[in-house]
Amino acid sequence: MTTAPNVIIDPVTRIEGHLRIQAFAEPDGRGGGVIRRPGLCAATMVRGVERILQGRDPRDAWAFTQRICGVCTVVHGVTSVRAVEHAIGIKVPRNADYIRNMMIGAQYVHDHVMHFYHLHALDWVDVASALRANPAATARLAQENNPGFKADSGALPNAAYFQGVLNRLTGAAGGGQLGLFGNGYWGHPGYRLTSEENLLLLSHYIEALAWAREVVKLHAIFGGKDPHPNLVVGGMPCTLSSNPGRVSEDAGGTSLNNAGFAVIRTAIARMQAFVDQVYLPDLLLLAKRYPEWAGYGATAGNFLCYGEFPDPALVKTEFIDGAGDYPAGYIFPRGVIWAGSHDRLAAFDPALVTENVAHAWYRGSATGVHPSVGSTELNYTGPAADGGSGYMLQEQGRYSWIKSPRYNGQPMEVGPLAHILTMHARGTLPTDTLVRGYVRKYWTNPKSAGGLGLTFAQLNSTLGRVFCRMLETKILADQMSVWYQGYHKGRAGPYWNSKAFTRLREPASWPNAVGVGFTEAPRGALGHWVTIDPGSGKIENYQCVVASQWNAGPRDAGATAGPYERALVGLVLADVARPLEVLRTIHSFDPCIGCAVHIADPDGRALVQVDVRHAAGSGSLV
User: Fold this and answer.
1) Which residues in 352-414 belong to E strands, given as ranges?
2) Which residue of 361, 452, 491, 515 has the smallest Cβ count within 10 Å?
3) Catalytic-role residue among 76, 120, 334, 342
4) What is the CATH number of the domain that holds 478?
5) 468: annotated active-site residue
6) Catalytic-labelled residue, pool 16, 207, 318, 581
7) Average pLDDT value for the chain
8) What is the pLDDT of residues 492-534, one digit of tens each?
9) Is residue 398 part of a domain?
10) Parallel, antiparallel, or unpaired for β 539-545 and 25-27?
11) Which pLDDT value is given to residue 381?
12) What are the angstrom distances between the C-alpha of 226 and each of 66, 216, 373, 540?
């Protein structure tokens, strides 16, 4: 029997960045097969932001790190300012935490809804089947599945509305202009929704586009623009209008006025309404049609969460590290869950995080070093040729531009599944109680009671990952109004800590310090480590360990597969030539390879040079 990979997807589309998946499926004699061992996951472009930051003012780092990715923009910026704040001992005001929570929370809600409809839904929704739908029957289905939801036009969707959606799809298909719907595995035997269910979800694909344009305004109000809103070390760059009266949206300059508050309230209300009326019921509809996917896509069962959404109102105190210098509670608790112990939340020790490069194209330690002393030195050795028929990744060699993060030497899954499991294990906050209730109501309740009738252990699966993403979106959409009220009540309080501001003015006087910023991005644990030179006040070393590194990293020095690679084990493919099942599992992680890498040409030469000038002088971003 041949051992050559017979499942190759390159590139994996509907993700951020470039990703290659290679696996071997044992043939079943009917065109299908079973994947019985971990596959190979390779990022095919290289990241160099850490080197760009060396020698720069640490207060500027957030502006560069946001450009790591155009999707994960806010979280990289916040993580960067947190790293610098930690290095120099800055504690931000309560209002700044509320604003950051709302900005990160808005990114979660926006990102997860867009992922479900625009990146992942087409793994479950058959566009070709939707072309055969009956618009009147689809309207009746909408009334049952999404009662009360009004389209962007303001009207309840009826038969005429769905006929319009059908006409658009039919016209695109007939003209050969399916665009984003092109090159799918339409008609694949793995699709199970009815024609009307397919048309309903495709209509929500379209509606989500208009919805996304509105809710993202919150970032522009607080940060001046989106993507890449403005941030600042020590707080937030928002000013409040001194005009207490009613003002128009374009009056009062760039300060936050009553019109801005109205936009924020409207954006939050639209988030909550779409999640409740569309995302949640659509996800449950899909889950009921594909319950067997709770049996595929499991990782090793180790989960990590750095903690996110600090709330001064929480009684419980948690800390950013052992020094205890960040006294705020977290909606997503910091902690670790080990395989076989999903009811126990173990303490997180930042010293146990390492990166190794045994199978990645970098110089460094094969067994792993802490990110604070890590480096980003390219060492491309190239994939081995396959007799001229195309290159193949070699399991024994280097095959990816992503390093392999480990915690206490073990691969860890991060992201929505980790968030929900850690909240469920903690069980002490009102949000934890909600999580436990939602898991019982929707996941473990028998089908006769409206649930899916699945076990708690089955959350570690492709379907469980998708379900937990929806669940945390629901939690955060509701929490947004809580943070808004907390900020709105305290917005007249002191905004800057004067001592902190004085220290920020003199970076050359800062001590030799290593800081770490932790954030839970929509895709999971995100950490930035910064070392500041005491003589110049400039960045001496900077390292990012991002969520998609944790999940998409290659094998480590012990040949242990990363979460993506491990999750492929056990997948049953109906058609090896059209590996839809592989896409379902990989997309369930919501890959963001752009966060793990950046672009260079095959010879390692930079593709662009940008001159960037800042307060301390000028430099070149290469």
Assistant:
1) 353-356, 362-363, 377-378, 404-407
2) 491
3) 76
4) 1.10.645.10
5) no
6) 16
7) 86
8) 444 444 444 444 556 666 766 889 999 999 999 999 999 998 8
9) yes
10) unpaired
11) 85
12) 11, 7, 33, 29
Residue 498 lies inside a defined structural domain of this protein: yes
Question: Measured in whole angstroms, how far is the alpha carbon of residue 13 from the centre of its chain?
Answer: 16
- Known active-site residue 16: yes
- Does any domain span residue 319? yes
In sequence order, what are the residues at sequence separation of 6 or more whose Cβ sits closer than 8 angstroms to the Cβ of residue 81? 61, 62, 231, 232, 233, 234, 517
Contacts of 29 (CB under 8 A, 6+ apart): none
- Residue 72 catalytic? yes
* DSSP H helices in 310-415: none
| Residue 240 backbone phi and psi in degrees, to 5 | -100, 140
Q: How many domains is the chain built from? A: 1
Alpha-helical runs (H) found in 73-145:
73-88, 94-114, 127-130, 135-145
Are 578 and 13 in contact, with CB atoms under 8 Å apart?
no
Burial (0-12, 13-18, 19+ Cβ within 10 Å), 529: buried
Write down the catalytic residue from 270, 334, 523, 598: 523
The first and second tokens of residue 17, run together, are: 């960045």
Percent of the chain with pLDDT strictly greater than 90: 65
Tens digits of per-residue pLDDT, 155-175? 999 999 999 999 988 887 766
Active-site residue flag, 587: no
> Active site includes 523?
yes
Q: Which of these is catalytic: 18, 56, 69, 406?
A: 69
Give the active site residue among 41, 72, 238, 305: 72
Residue 412, burial from CB neighbour count under 10 angstroms (0-12, 13-18, 19+): buried
Judge residue 291's burial from the number of C-beta atoms within 10 Å of its C-beta, 0-12 exposed, 13-18 middle, 19 or more buried: middle
* Domain coverage including residue 85: 48-122+214-376+390-560+589-621
Residue 540 pLDDT > 70, yes or no? Answer: yes
User: Judging by DSSP bridges, how do beta strands 33-35 and 40-43 pair with one another?
Assistant: unpaired
**Which residues make Cβ contacts (< 8 Å) with residue 128, sequence separation at least 6?**
173, 186, 187
Q: Enter the tokens of residue 368.
A: 């792993």
Does residue 154 sit within a domain? Answer: no
Catalytic residue from among 80, 342, 592, 598: 592
Which residues 6+ apart lie within 8 Å of 339 measured at CB?
Answer: 300, 301, 302
The whole-number pLDDT of residue 179 equals 64
Catalytic residue among 41, 238, 305, 595: 595
Residue 238 annotated as catalytic: no
* E-assigned strand segments in 434-587: 513-521, 524-532, 539-545, 572-573
Q: Is the pLDDT of residue 617 over 80?
A: no
228 is catalytic: no
